[in-house]
Design a protein that fits this description.
The protein is α/β, with parallel strands linked by helices and about 250 residues long. It is about 30% helix and about 20% strand. Bound molecules: ligand 3Y8 and NADP nicotinamide-adenine-dinucleotide phosphate.
Length: about 250
């Protein structure tokens, strides 16, 4: 029985969990590459080599993995990065590379929460009230223009980078800040802007949960965008489970 090749991992990153996995993998001296799409100007430095940019679809991902003899693919992208996760499933199958997803449970409302669930960005726009309000769009940059359909509101935006093109919203304030965020910081931000409602994605995890606690403290309603459906794949929620899979599970083709 030939010895299994030494692990050579590809981690699809962009989340707190992906960064934590990179730290654990580097500490064990495993060969790994962390991949970013290139959405932000200066992504967090990583303790493993980084590559930046799309692969060119599932086939491009499969070729990239074959050319570099990748032995394990870990999809640790954000739950709203649905296209990347679809490509990860297809690319892993094409290249014959075992795949695991490192996810995080969806947030669930607790007592005191005032959530309205909507299926997507369009649903969030439709859920906004008619009378003008001061609304925090904790959605980043990519989808804010959809809210131009409700120009009567004053929006508070929070981007990772200064935008090269100003948002197409007539009344807005912009904060440039990358998470993870804190409860005190988000309470102070919402108070300073007189926020009356928050719109966010059900990202889960800890890096963006502060706004939910802040909304609860301030008694504010939250428009919660539910996650897109992801393709079926093996999924775990801890770095330890990924490391165990690398040590044992992937060989069994689980
Ligand atoms: C480029 C890599 C780490 C990862 C940190 C997590 C936490 C902080 C909270 C709010 C919500 C939002 C946004 C958010 C958070 C973490 C995590 C997370 C939300 C970086 C990063 C990249 C991105 C891309 C960026 C999106 C945007 C979304 C801002 C790095 C900082 C709103 C998601 O300008 C743009 O084009 C930004 C695009 C996709 C969503 C959007 O539609 O605008 N993330 N965020 C990744 C790549 O290129 O592959 O720059 O270091 C990563 C993180 N952002 O290692 O510490 O784990 O989720 N990211 C959301 O959750 O709704 C902010 O403001 O309250
Ligand atoms: P997406 O819509 O699912 O993916 C669009 C395309 O971007 C993919 O088809 C792929 O291009 C490329 N791509 C995405 N993630 C990549 C990665 N990690 N490495 C290389 N290429 C990648 O993705 P998204 O929602 O824009 O997310 C982009 C990045 O931001 C991901 O790293 C994600 O983890 C991170 N992020 C996203 C959110 C969010 O709210 N969406 C929140 C926090 C962090 P090709 O088809 O050319 O391969």
């Amino acid at each position: 029985m030939p010895a299994a090749p030494r692990p050579n991992l590809l981690i699809l990153g962009g989340t707190t969990e992906a960064s934590a996995l990179a730290v654990a993998v580097a500490a064990r001296g495993l060969a790994a590459t962390l991949s970013y799409a290139g959405r932000t100007a200066a992504p967090r430095a990583q303790p493993v080599p980084v590559r930046i940019g799309g692969f060119g679809g599932a086939a491009g991902l499969a070729d990239w993995m074959r050319e570099r003899a990748i032995t394990h693919l870990i999809d640790a992208t954000h739950p709203f990065a649905a296209r990347m996760s679809e490509h990860a499933v297809a690319g892993a199958r094409q290249a014959g590379v075992p795949l695991i997803a490192l996810g995080r449970p969806a947030w669930r409302p607790v007592s005191g929460d005032r959530w309205t669930h909507v299926p997507d960005i369009a649903g969030a726009v439709a859920a906004l009230p008619s009378p003008p309000e001061r609304i925090m769009l904790a959605l980043g940059r990519m989808h804010v223009d959809a809210f131009a359909a409700r120009p009567q509101h004053r929006y508070l935006l929070r981007f990772v980078d200064n935008p090269s093109i100003l948002p197409g919203l007539p009344h807005h304030d912009l904060v440039v800040d990358r998470g993870p965020f804190t409860e005190d910081g988000d309470v102070a931000l919402m108070r300073a802007h007189g926020i009356q409602r928050i719109v966010c994605k059900n990202a889960g995890g800890t890096g963006a949960a502060a706004k939910l606690a802040a909304a609860r403290i301030l008694g504010l309603p939250v428009v919660m965008i539910d996650r897109p459906t992801l393709p079926p794949r093996l999924e775990v929620e801890t770095v330890a489970a990924v490391l165990d899979w690398i040590d044992h599970g992937a060989d069994r083709g689980v």
